[in-house]
Write a structure and sequence with these properties.
300 residues, 16 strands, alpha+beta, single chain, 2 domains, D-amino Acid Aminotransferase, Chain A, domain 1, 26% helix, 7-stranded antiparallel beta sheet
């Protein structure tokens, strides 16, 4: 029988100490549990090296600032902690999850919205996560539903933070999609324009050019930026612009990007269909080559 996820034998870096996963505990009165005051990152290690580790650590710090708290560790210290977890867990190809949050320790006797004195914690966990989606579906293309929920107006939420509070509607939307037989859901923004999926950015192809929504009301992914650079390296034009749902019928290919999803083809979004093609396949291959430490072969 498979052990519960929180009973794995790995170590977690927790406020500067390595602790067995099963021993990592937080109080039920933790502010982040009640008010979603947490930020996190999703990263991958390939061959023992975390791809763009420093960029992720920098974004973690920025996300915390947008959520009005400061992580009490420098970018260099966070990078070093991630490397330590990999080394002590003897892991090479794994998912890496740093998370920072407002804890339960506070001055006074109240647990309320205000949390100016609460202690800020940081933890880093790693685990095996081969692919966010079924590997057999990644090439033939995922089927996506259209979410009822929309990405919020950036004047109503810290849209550019990778914050836990912004993922509530993503979980609801993904659950609904899965119950309907889809792998995920595409979300529009508050003005009805194409935005992203529940945990990935989205791209479309037509006439040899790539089109992707402007990331000003949702997180501009590090994988997204990497794929844009890879495409331009091959002289494929990438156009960042407003994309409307009614345009989807004019696109021939579609793919999504993210740390967990990497580059994954899409074959359907609601009633719109796409055929995974040359550009999607090329970028899947280029990304796979890019993330591997140079000179190291892929793990079996």
């Amino acid at each position: 029988m498979t052990a519960p996820f929180d009973q794995r034998p790995d170590l977690i870096w927790f406020d500067g100490k390595l602790i067995p996963t099963a021993d990592c505990k937080i109080s039920i009165l933790t502010h982040a549990l009640h008010y979603a005051s947490a930020v996190f990152e999703g990263e991958r290690a390939y061959g023992g090296e975390i791809f763009k580790s420093t960029e992720h650590s920098e974004r973690l710090k920025r996300s915390a600032e947008l959520m009005d708290f400061e992580i009490p560790y420098s970018v260099a210290e966070i990078d070093a902690a991630k490397r330590l977890v990999l080394e002590r867990n003897d892991q090479k190809d794994v998912y890496v999850r740093p998370i920072a949050w407002r804890g339960s320790e506070q001055l006074g006797e109240q647990l309320g919205v205000s949390a100016l004195t609460n202690k800020i914690h940081l933890a880093i966990a790693t685990w095996q996560w081969p692919s966010y989606f079924d590997p057999a579906e990644r090439l033939k293309g995922l089927r996506l539903d259209l979410s009822d929920y929309r990405r919020p107006d950036p004047k109503t939420a810290p849209s550019l933070a990778k914050a836990s509070c912004l993922y509530a509607i993503c979980t609801i939307s993904k659950h609904r999609a899965e119950r309907r037989g889809y792998a995920d859901a595409m979300m529009l923004d508050w003005q009805g324009r194409v935005a992203e999926c529940t945990g990935t950015n989205i791209f479309f192809v037509t006439d040899g050019k790539i089109h992707t929504p402007i990331a000003d009301c949702f997180l501009p992914g590090i994988t997204r930026a990497t794929v844009i650079a890879l495409a331009r390296r091959r002289n494929i034009e990438v156009i960042e612009r407003r994309v409307m749902p009614e345009e989807l019928a004019s696109f021939s290919e579609c793919f999504i990007t993210g740390t967990a999803a990497e580059v994954t083809a899409v074959s359907q979004i609601a009633d719109w269909s796409f055929t995974p093609g040359r550009i999607t396949q090329q970028l899947m291959d280029d990304y796979s080559a890019e993330v591997r430490p140079k000179g190291k072969a892929a793990a079996a």
